[in-house]
Structures are given as C-alpha cells and as structure tokens.
Design a protein that fits this description.
With 473 residues, this protein is an alpha/beta fold. It has a domain at 6-42 and 61-81 and 216-282 and 417-472: FAD/NAD(P)-binding domain. The chain is built from 17 helices and 16 strands. It is globular and about 65 Å long.
Length: 473
C-alpha cells in the first residue's frame, strides 16, 4: 500500500459516510470539501430573515431513518435527533378532504375510499412487517439476495409504472392519488418503470420508520457524521475545490462523492478512453425549482388534518400529478405543477423565532430551466390553504441553476444524482458488477450516481468504502 491517507472528495452525506466507514476500519482518512461547511445537499441556513433556519436542499428523511448505515452509528450522541410529525404525509383534495399516510396502516386506510382500505393493507402490510430485510436487499449493490422470496414478491409489484400499480390495486381516486404523489418523488412520470418501486419504498418507510425531520435543520445530519468522523481520527479540509486528482497528495485510494460529469473533470487523465465514453453517456433527469418561506403563522390548511403532517403533496388527482411529472420530463413547464411541501416548524421550534414559522416547497421543471415558478407554486398552496399568501413575511427561491451552483452534484437541478429509470437504476453510473470501482486503479465513485441512488442515507458512500477496503486488503 502506498503512503498517505485515503482521500475522499466531497463532503455530502455520501462522502461523509464513506470517510466514516474508512476511518472505522482504522484507516487514515482525509476528506476535502469545496465549501466552507460540510453537507452538500444536506445543509441549512438563514435564507430569508434572521432567526429563520431553512434546509437548502433535502429536508425530510425517511431513507435516513431507514438507512442500515445510519442506524449503526451513534449519531444521536453526536447531535442528531429525529423529529417525527404525527403523520408523515398528507394529500389534500379540492373538496376539503385529505388522504393521509399515517404510521398506522389502519389509520391510513380510514382516509381512503372504503373499497380500497383492504387493498392498501394487502399491498403494503407484508413489506412493512419485513421492511428491514427488504431494504437490506433492495438498497444494496448488485448481489445475490439474502431474502430472494421477499425481494421477488416486492419486485412483482414494484417493477412497473406507478400508474399501472394504482389502477390494478385501487378503484378510488384517494388511494391512487396518494401513491402516485409518493411515486412522483422519482422525478419521472408515473407511466414509466419503475416508479411503482419508489412509491412503495417510501410508503413502506412511512409506516415502518416515519418521514422525520432533523431537529434544528438537515445540517445536523452532516454535522453529526462529521463529528463521528473526527472522533474516529478522520481529517476534514473545507474550502478546498479539488479540480484534479493531480492536485492531491498520493493516496492508496480516492473516493469521489461526485456525479459522472464531475468525475470526468477531476479524474479524466486517469480514466481510460472507453470508460470515459461510458461515463459521458450518463443521463440526468429533470430539475427542481424551490421556495423557502418565512411565515407569520402556520399555513391555514382547509383540511385541518394537513397540520399533522410534516410533508404535504399538492396536486389533487393522480391524473394531474401524472401530467405535471410528464411535462417536466418532456421539457415543458406545467402551469399547475405538482408541489411537494414541508412545514418543519409545526414540529421543531428551533427553526424560527417564537410564534413564527418556516415552510418550503418545490416542483419539478425541465433540467436547467430558469423559469420563475413562484406564482405557480404559491397558487397551488393557496388552492388548498386560502389565505396562505397573507402569512408570507419573506421568501427565497432557487432555480435549477442556483441549486447546481450551491451543490455541483445537482446537475441542472437534478436532486437524484441522475435518472433512475429501469435501465439506469441498475447501471449507475455504468454497467458493472462493482459500480463503485472505476476503470482507474484506486479511484472510486461514492455519490448518489451509484446504487442505491438519491436520498440522504449514506449508503452509496458506505458501499463504496467497503468496496475500497476489500480492494486494499
């Protein structure tokens, strides 16, 4: 083994996870981050007014709570506390009613059409009861499943379009809209495979572990990981933009929390031409337009049950959600977008001055769009919460380009690290039995452009670090 520490580039949750795993194996580790603060897409800041703390990118963390890597770390001892709203998700309708993803399956069913209550339980309950082995297999890199029967049962339901799943299982619009909205987190139209898998995984997580917030802001997740890393002897160097691996000291291994576009820039001279061409074919998905609000009062929902939920989906019917998702995928702007909203201060009073509140929302837009979707998003909130605009004290908006400027891994505003369709879900970043290992000896990719993809769970970094450690041994 050559001299020098193992080097990780990029201190997003996956880069931090990789460094933590390496340091836990008694390795000397140095982590480089271009910003002055760790976190990548998991940072918080006072974006609007003094005293109002906003999550810049990620804000709700079902996969963080479910992550086997996070669950094995003493993150609470290092400052991370999960806050669980009474209900993970609410989905209001124009008639003033609401479908609610509750922690309880039965309570969720009570908010659906009577004809669909048993169907919802039959669809979800077997996997809620076995969520840990299911997630262990479903969120792992290519491998021989440890629970093949369970994974096959899930695959029969999940490896299909969400639109087909909800039509096959439900007769009423309430269940169809609820699950279609959850599946839309994939940033792909629900007519595409495997959007059903995203909807089911997130719904199962909602029942099994909730959709929690990090008390005080998502920055606390990154800070806790950084604290664990330092406790294990790792070094973090912030404010250092690594433009080429040639700028770094010699190391036994380099782990890059970067998407393929940045990997090509940083490691191009070490990668053989064939691998560079394969990386260059990597596809990115639609972008996001995001708003953060400082509010004088809680959002005045027409359906009062929405105030119990940390996340609220605003789009109405399953058809409307599908149309909005298709527009962004096809490069069009939708005048009535599907809006994903979070209201953290109803459950976490550390994010705003006493009596005040914050909320954030985003919608899907074409990748790289510079369109201002403020009016469209606020109209959707007002549609389900008349008087919402009167509560706004200040707002902060981010276009896809501004999201990418904040975190270059958000290429064109793509918050999932690249398209996660049926092909690229299993071949990120290239077709390989060991996707974290590049064609350059000692160079690895540990970003969300590797399995299992987007979300704050640290699993891409964890799996990449374990790959590197096996190779070093």
């Amino acid at each position: 083994m050559s001299a020098g520490p193992l080097i990780v580039v990029g201190a997003g949750p996956n880069g931090l996870a990789a460094a933590v795993e390496l340091a836990g194996a008694a390795q000397d580790v140095r982590l480089y981050e271009r910003s002055d603060r760790v976190g990548g897409g998991t940072r918080s800041a006072e974006l609007t007014l003094p005293g109002f703390v906003h999550d810049i990118c990620s804000g709700v963390h079902p996969m963080g709570a479910a992550s086997p890597f996070f669950r094995g770390l003493p993150l609470r001892q290092h400052g991370l506390e999960w806050v669980h709203p009474p209900a993970p998700l609410a989905h209001p309708f124009d008639d003033g009613t609401v479908a609610v993803l509750e922690r309880s399956l039965d309570a969720t069913g009570e908010t659906l059409d009577a004809a669909d209550r048993r169907a919802y339980r039959r669809l979800v309950a077997p996997f809620v009861d076995a969520w840990e082995p299911l997630f262990a297999d479903a969120l792992a890199p290519p491998h021989v499943p440890r629970h093949p029967v369970l994974l096959a049962r899930f695959g029969l339901r999940a490896l299909r379009p969400a639109a087909g799943l909800v039509r096959a299982w439900f007769s009423g619009e309430r269940a169809r809209a609820l699950l279609t909205g959850i599946a839309a987190h994939a940033l792909e139209p629900p007519t595409r495979v495997p959007t059903a898998a995203f909807g089911l995984i997130l719904a199962i997580a909602g029942h099994a572990v909730g959709w929690p917030l990090a008390r005080g802001g998502s920055q606390r997740i990154a800070d806790a990981l950084a604290s664990v890393l330092r406790a294990r002897g790792g070094e973090i160097v912030t404010g250092t933009h690594v433009r080429s691996l040639a700028e770094l000291p010699p190391a036994p291994a380099y782990l890059l929390d970067l998407t393929p576009r940045q990997v090509l820039r940083v490691a191009e001279d070490r990668l053989p031409p064939g691998y560079r061409r394969r990386l260059a074919r990597y596809r990115y998905g639609p972008g996001a337009f995001k708003i953060d609000w400082a509010l004088s009062d809680p959002i005045p929902w027409r359906a009062k049950e929405c105030a119990r939920a940390g996340t609220v989906h605003l789009g109405g019917s399953s058809a409307a959600i599908a149309a909005a998702s298709a527009a962004a995928w096809e490069g069009r702007l939708e005048p009535r977008p599907f809006v994903l909203l979070a209201q953290p201060t109803l459950f976490d009073d550390r994010r705003a001055p006493p009596g005040r509140h914050t909320a954030w929302a985003y919608c899907h837009v074409p990748r790289g769009s510079e369109a201002d979707m403020t009016a469209a998003i606020e109209a959707q909130v007002e549609r389900f919460a008349p008087g919402f605009r009167d509560t706004i004290l200040a707002r902060h908006t981010m276009t896809p380009g501004q999201l990418e400027e904040h975190d270059p891994n958000l290429v064109g505003g793509d918050i999932n690290g690249g398209v996660q369709d049926v092909w690229q879900l299993f071949t990120r970043p290239v077709v390989s039995l060991v996707p974290y290992r590049t064609a350059a000896p000692g160079v690895y990719i540990c970003s969300s452009s590797t399995p299992p993809g987007g979300a704050v769970h640290g699993l891409c970094g964890w799996h990449a670090a374990r790959t590197a450690l096996r190779d070093l041994r």
